[in-house]
Model the fold of this input.
Amino acid sequence: MEMAQRVNEFKNGSGPRRYPWAEWMDESIWEIRQGEDYDVPTENMRVNLHERGKRYARVVRTEKFTDEKGEGLRFQFRSSPRQSPIQKGPIGQSPWRMRSQGTTQAF
Done:
């Protein structure tokens, strides 16, 4: 029986795709296409965009489109307009912890 072995790379050259998140989050409206800019189903990419927005306290507007070249998404990351000042603290710090410590000023 052959044992599993560790390899250094995928033979077909595929691997996790790296997206330019910092660039995409500049509040511009971006258009990306399936097969060119992302390989997952379009609905999965839409979920990825919204999850990234949640992680960085951003609102994401998305629009799915289909044309003669295929399908894709238009999207825009924006600062959350409904955020209270207490939620504008450093990313990763819980607003509930800040509130319990009496921190209420905007950052």
Observations:
- Strands lie at 30-33, 58-67, 70-79.
- The chain has one domain: 21-100.
- Residues 84-101, 103-107 have pLDDT under 50 and may be disordered.
